[in-house]
Amino acid sequence: MSQREDILHIFEKSGAHSAWGLKHCTRVYLLSKDLSQHLSLDEEILYIASMLHDTGRYPAYARPNMDHTLRSKGVASNLLQRMAFPSTKIPIVLEAIETHMYYSEPGRSDEAIYLRDADILDNLGNIGLMKLFSLIGHDDLIRTPEDALERARTFAEALPNKVYTKAGRRLAVKRREEMLRFLSGIKRQSSDFAAIL
What we know:
This protein is mainly alpha-helical. It has two domains: 1-119, Hypothetical protein af1432 (Orthogonal Bundle); 123-197, Up-down Bundle (Methane Monooxygenase Hydroxylase, Chain G, domain 1), CATH 1.20.58. Helices cover 61% and strands 0% of the residues. 41% of the residues are buried. The model has no long low-confidence stretch (mean pLDDT 94). Residues 21-124 form the HD domain.
């Protein structure tokens, strides 16, 4: 089985919600590449880290009371060793996975930095809004449409400040504006959020 087939097999058996699954990971990978196009990142590291960064969230791999970044790092470590992934690259992949969340400091490698920025940006803008609303009733923090709207407001205000790279910051401003336009429209059309669904 090839590396890419191994990765697809992970998603097939993972039980991942679409907000964090294959399409999210693919967007993160492609956006990481786009943001870093002026650099020569290691394609293999960036791809594997992007595809495995959220595995610790998936029902097949998650562990109670364990941060998904640490669980994802453990799952990736086991998988990469079984795949005979180059041993010199494994620590870089694992650091990128461990530091991909907005509440983490960026990792040391360019691959880690751009993966983190792309993951943050995937939570902003129109795609970020779609993800939030798709999670209603599937996430402990997003039980209702009101929770999704509150989370969208929080993300629009806080996440752009977490983006590290210049290219990422430019895109964060645009995606923040998309979210704020949406929130403003919903506010107008729902009597100040009083008449939400």
